Amino acid sequence: MALKKVAVIVAGSWGTALARVLVDNGHIVKLWTRNAEQAAQINQERRNEKFLPGALLPEGITATTDMAYAVSDAEAVLFVAPSSAMRDVAQQASGSLPKDALVIHATKGFESDTLKRMSTVLAEELGRPEQQIVVLSGPSHAEEVINRHPTTIVVASKEISFAEAAQDLFMNDAYFRVYTNSDVIGVETAGAIKNIIALGAGLSDGLGFGDNAKAALITRGLAEISRLGVAMGANPLTFAGLAGVGDLIVTCTSQHSRNWRAGSMLAQGLPLSDVLERMGMVVEGVRTTKAAHVLANKHHVEMPITDQLFAVLFENTSPEQAVGALMGRVRTHENEQQAVFHNKSINPDQVNPGL
Asked: Which terms are listed as keywords in the entry (predicted)?
């Protein structure tokens, strides 16, 4: 494998963990951050305490606040900015990024005002075809990757050669296995909307419900993700893979998940503003709930779990009221839900979503 110069934008928990993977694979990594104190801590102490407390970072990571320095000689650039900041950091990088650099992103969300996927945002700002953008997703907690725990993810691009280039960049035999996929819409949609269901899982656990409730939430949540994804043009089989059910399970069942923790705090009666302040990090599921609520209406897809979480987050509905609304929905037949996995061309208007 040829070694590469890679820029990682930005130095949050996931960006830092992926920088470790790249260094372990022998690549030369520059990690960009806006925060000079954070850059100094990474370079001098080999720590990123705000995002990955207690983790010791390898010497091969060089942190910088200079975007041009980070990307000007990069053969690949990995964007891991929050969805709300992606367009801004892409604009900053665009003037210095080499035109032949491989572009990858690992952000799970939509742009709030335009409802665009991150690959579309990057293509617009970097002036390159969207089919050449690669998305990295799947069941992966930064807290485990930084400690080299076995992890399996997927990289997707409409042009499979770009996905294979990203696979070569990240895959190693020790702890990080990478599969390729060509369904960018499915991978991005699954990665974004699973955060909504994770908020719901946190609410369920915070209310003291058991495994029965969580199993139902995850299963019916997958049906919602699939319905919207297919309506947007995704391959339904994607949702049965790593980017779909795999990522959904890990995010809904682990206290590493920011979205799970935020949901749990909401169930305890804390206002959303207090929850976000206590988290101290971006909770993508909150923004995504608002975006998915609009997208569902746009594509005429019913998403009852998303609708009730929207009501809890933005309409002062209590978690208990939301549970009652879900449990009291009109009865339906589960096989109608499974049709989305077997018939890619199904009309979502013909599917009765139930719970």
From this structure: Cytoplasm, Lipid biosynthesis, Lipid metabolism, NAD, NADP, Nucleotide-binding, Oxidoreductase, Phospholipid biosynthesis, Phospholipid metabolism
